[in-house]
Amino acid sequence: xxxxWPFIIGLLVPFFAVVALFPxxxxxxxxxxxxxxxFFWMFLWFPLTAxxxxxxxxxxxxxxxxx
Amino acid sequence: xxxxxxxxxxLVSLALAWMSRRGQTQSLEDFLVAGRSLGTPLFYxxxxxxxxxxxxxIGFPGGIYAGGAVYAIWFLGYILLAYPxxxxxxxxxxxxxxxxxxxxxxxxxxRHFRSRGLMLVMAIASLIFVxxxxxxxxxGLEVLLKAFAPHLNVTLGLSLAGIxxxxxxxxxxxxxxxxxxxxxxTLLIASILIVGIAVIIIAxxxxxxxxxxxxxxxxxxxxxxxxxxxxxxxxxxxxxxxALGFYTSPFSIQYNFTAKSETSVKKAQMxxxxxxxxxxxxxxxxxxxxxxxxxxxxxxxxxxxxxxxxVLPPWLVGLVAAGAALSAILxxxxxxxxxxxxxxxNLIRGYLxxxxxxxxxxRWTKVAVGIYLLISILLTVxxxxxxxxxxxxxxxxxxxxxxxxxxxxxxRKATPIGVGAGLVAGDLAALAMYFAHLQPWGLNLGLVALxxxxxxxxxxxxxxxGERTPLVALKAAGSQxxxxxxxxx
Lengths: 67, 489
Prior knowledge:
The complex is a heterodimer. Chain A contains three helices and no strands. Chain A has helices at residues 5-20, 22-25, 37-66. Chain B is mainly alpha-helical. In chain B, helix 3 (40-51) packs across helix 14 (262-271), helix 7 packs parallel to helix 21 and helix 11 packs across helix 15.
């Protein structure tokens, strides 16, 4: 069961945010820093995807040490 | 002045390629995959160096100029999601490369499935679908040539760039692109930041630019979700399809093998998304052209250079051009190397002339690269295409390698006939739909072809006998390389 978590956080979460939520975030308003909202949402997920992968990495490391 | 700066930068890049020879040995493994010795920093540089090609700095703003948010969002989305996919599959592909002593994608298939036929199919498909990738690089160079050296014959200019790319790999194999990446990425990032910040200052903020675009092209700021222009199925299917194929292109498979360990691969993969922070600056430059520089509709790919020339002094424009040109030449070098290894090892040694001498193989390999560069140049000159569309075309083929590679990693029952049938059917389906201009259900046609591919790979594999241990089930940590190469002799 534990082995599935890195996969969920590292892969499924970014896919969900970019693909599944598309109908919701595909809008011009509100503008953020002058950019249409859908652009801002994409920009937001650059660091957030890196963060998801970092979490996956830490989880995997903990599992390896636990074994 | 612009040309002067550009030429200086190209000379410095050659010097860097020369420096990268240090520590090199004479082995083929060193030449093709840098001896599987690159630690995280250099491996990361090679990877991003090859990812952010001229398609990013010239093609991406061009796509926005021509199509607005539709192009911007699929492009950003597929690159972003490719990184999580790569985080999970690249370490496994690296392990497979190490285990089988593979330097190319077809090597993996040959040694895992023990089928020369499958290797041949994979090699030919690889060679066909890297052509649009070459054309993408040359199209970007053509934009630069037309802007800076309008009197120079385009075919001649592109040929010179091709020769330079070839020179890098003759000097130091795969180590050269890794080293030259340092210069190229510094210039590329600096260019994007400088142009982006300059247009924001000149337009007095992001908001005025966006308002201008909203007035001139109201549909360009978001993806139309309904009506005749509904692009949602296309955008989402393209994102998913190309994210899957990002790391299964013939050259990406090979770059992945240059890493020192699975850990280096994973660490580099984790940091990848952060590199995308330059995109807002690129997008705002494209919006700036869209808002204030009319009349690029005949060649939208000129939009970034046009913005740069509009806001920067000539010597800085020269630096921007150098960054863009280097990014194209560097990618051409990496792709040429991948092609030469597939041609040499898999096509000539592996199939056409197993007993040929090293000198003969080397000669024919150079001929193969020459033919590749020539075809790409001719297609660029004869069939001008929006650059981002070339990315689509290349991926129609790249992603078709995905099911076979997954079978190799995970599926015990996959057979060479099954994987081969799936690959051939997927490629043919994609090509047929591409030339017939079909876009089923508004989806990316490559995704439809991928479904055909997966169904055939699974169905034919189940119908044919034979099992082999998938990579993830291999317990033995050691390398099979010795045994395999002994058996091949």
